[in-house]
Amino acid sequence: MTEPAGIAEFSRPVAADAIGPQRQTREISADAEERRQLARRFALLSLDRLEATLELRRHAGEVIRVTGRFAADVVQSCVVSLAPVPAHIEADFETSYSAAAAESAEVDLDPLGEDAPEPLVGGAIDLGEAVAQQLAVALDPYPRAPGVAWKPDEAGESGEATVRRPFAGLAALQGRPPKKGSGGE
After folding, report:
1. To the nearest 10°, the Cα dihedral for 113, 119, 125, 130?
2. 157: Cβ–Cβ under 8 A, 6 or more apart, which residues?
3. Distances in Å between the alpha carbon of 109 and those of 49, 114, 116, 170?
4. Residue pair 33/133 in contact by the 8 Å Cβ criterion
5. pLDDT tens per residue across span 107-126
6. How far apart are CA 28 and CA 17, in angstroms?
7. pTM of this prediction?
8. In whole angstroms, what is the distance from residue 94 CA to residue 131 CA?
């Protein structure tokens, strides 16, 4: 997972050369300003906590594997009512990096296989950006406040939604009663 150009809200770079075959553990957390910037990036009302514990290790073939767990407290906006929707997110993840990934232009995708390693950018891995991207994937794409239901159209007396027909308004403008089934009955 490479860092998008110009974005470094939560940057924790680690030189790839400093990672050996022995497991290294890193704990990182975003400060208030970093959380504010990430909240803006991900269209959150707030990001009150973002912490991660990560393990780094170099494997055969010069692949660096990062495994970790992050925890975040977020507040999203309800897609129906726009009310604040707080959520606690915890997730495990694993990703890998390789200098060879940047050189390889041809990618062989196997939907059941392991993900290809991410390229190393500038000889380093940005652990903060890796965690931020994992947070983005874990966010609820359609947060809904408790008790809020989606009503696609106003309900009729029977409780079923009325169907609006696009040409019913045109019939009314021409002074004709709408045809049966055109939504104007």
Report:
1. -50
2. none
3. 35, 9, 8, 51
4. no
5. 566 666 677 888 888 889 99
6. 20
7. 0.73
8. 10
